[in-house]
Specification:
Elements lengths: L1 E7 L2 E7 L7 E4 L2 E4 L2 H4 L2 E2 L2 H10 L2 E5 L1 H9 L9 E3 L2 E7 L2
Parallel strand pairs: 2-6
Antiparallel strand pairs: 1-2, 1-5, 3-4, 6-8, 7-8
């Protein structure tokens, strides 16, 4: 997986995606999702690093079957609130 962290005025923003979705565009009806290098590009990370980062995140964007599943298994994302966009999965997290 690819992991990127940024500090924002709203706190820690985390972007995580599966390696194979970076640079791809997925569509489902009116919904279109492009996994842009400029936003999701970062460092290779294992499951433990991804869970640690998502656990500290105030805002997170997660794309890809594996990345979303890791977030669900860790109890960070509720599987009932995951979007299916084309051939991939997408979840967002906002902690207030």
């Amino acid at each position: 997986m690819i992991l990127r962290e940024r500090q924002t005025e709203q706190g820690l923003m985390v972007a995580v995606c599966d390696d194979d979705v970076l640079g791809e565009t997925f569509e489902n009806g009116r919904v279109s999702l492009t996994v842009e290098e400029s936003f999701y590009g970062g460092d290779e990370a294992d499951e433990g690093e991804v869970v640690d980062s998502l656990s500290r995140a105030n805002i997170a964007n997660i794309v890809g079957a594996r990345a979303v599943e890791v977030a669900i298994e860790a109890g960070i994302i509720d599987g009932d609130h995951v979007l299916e966009v084309g051939e991939t999965r997408h979840a967002q997290l906002v902690r207030i």
